[in-house]
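I'm curious: can you give me some protein's one-letter sequence along with its backbone structure tokens because I've never seen that pairing?
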Amino acid sequence: MAAAVRAQSVSKWFPLRDGESLHVLQGVDIEVEERSVAAIVGASGCGKSTLLNIIAGLIPPDRGEVFLNGVPSKSFTEWRSLTYMFQDDRLLPWRTAAQNVAFGLEAAGAPRAERRERVAETLALVGLADFAEAYPHELSGGMRSRVALARSLVTRPSILLMDEPFSKLDPSIRSQMHDEVLRVAGLMGMTIVFVTHDVEEAVVLADTVVTLKPRPGRVQETHVINLPHPRDPLSAEVAERARLLRRSLQS
């Protein structure tokens, strides 16, 4: 199977006020197969979000290169096929759920009739068809996360990037969102790359888990999680894989 995302020898420095530079990433190599789920795990400050931002094209690497669907990211033209879910839902409070979901299509210049149809389909896909006209303050935290997910899905991406989007949800709602993401990814044939500090979340969702060592961030190990879905976060199998990941991170 071909790689949907490949980072090759990616390094990054950030300038400091004293004129020095902070070495954030060093020679990072990762490869994520099409239609698979990959987690990037590591301690705070190890460069997880920076790496995700480089993959998303939000910041350039100082060395190395990223390939998306086999194309160098600097030459990649199908940016609508890649979407990003941030830690916060970032819903616009003056727009309804449907209007928030439609935002990306509006920016892309999609016709109004197409926007209306695709927004309705996507809200139905995430179980929010009855809440299209609700405003963010009228929705629960889990429902807001579903709106954010729908906004990411409405452009029908082939690659979904997620930066700890469920970290603020309580455990039961987070588990529901895990199931929802995997269900939708299977239906749409998406590739998912996400960062998390929660090793149980990584084991529950991912086919592969990349652990990063900090300062500068570099790949420590890539773990294959070959457990069948759905995965119970309280099961002995998940607990054992999570224990092994923690041990890897601490070594």
Observations:
- Helices lie at 48-56, 97-101, 103-107, 112-125, 141-153, 171-188, 199-205, 236-250.
- The chain has a mean pLDDT of 92.
- The beta strands are 3-15, 21-33, 37-41, 63-68, 71-72, 82-85, 159-163, 191-196, 208-213, 218-224.
